[in-house]
Design brief:
The chain is mainly β. Helices cover 14% and strands 46% of the residues.
Length: 155
């Protein structure tokens, strides 16, 4: 958390979304836009979590099934699914999720550390946890979920 932490007490805006019955959030500053599901053109030899690519206003946008990447199973996209267009490191990528839920404003103090009982993979992806209105929201780090080398293969 320390590498991206704001000044203590400063608010941070996160966009929350659902994958299955679980809720996640990412830093809103990484999100460029949210759009409806568009079928993707498959790419040969792409990692299993890469759905393919779509045309986004003349640019090729790789689509990542975020549920599959997080080990939650592959999505069967419908018109209700959405693509979160995000800036991950120096590349723009589309993240396939079930639905966008909310915009959350939290302080760093509200972000709880990932429990030690979680697997190494979970601790790699999940930056922290938020307890909001009786539900747990996992704050994920997109730069850890989508390393450069895998994005390079997708594009």
């Amino acid at each position: 958390m320390s590498e991206a932490a704001n000044k203590s007490g400063a608010g941070r805006e996160l966009i929350s979304f659902r994958i299955g019955d679980q809720e996640f959030c990412v830093n809103i500053m990484e999100v460029r836009e949210i759009r409806g599901w568009t079928p993707a053109t498959a790419l040969p030899q792409a990692p299993p979590f890469v759905r393919g690519v779509i045309n986004l206003r003349g640019a090729v946008l790789p689509i990542v099934d975020l549920g599959a990447r997080l080990g939650l199973g592959t999505a069967d996209p419908t018109a209700r699914h959405v693509i979160i267009v995000a800036q991950v490191q120096n590349q723009v990528v589309g993240l396939l999720v079930d639905a966008v839920s909310d915009i959350l404003t939290v302080t760093d103090e509200e972000i709880q550390p990932t429990p030690d009982v979680a697997s190494e993979m979970v601790r790699t992806f999940v930056r922290g946890l938020l307890a909001i209105d009786g539900r747990m929201v996992s704050f994920i780090s997109l730069d850890r979920v989508l390393p450069d080398r895998e994005l390079d293969h997708a594009a």
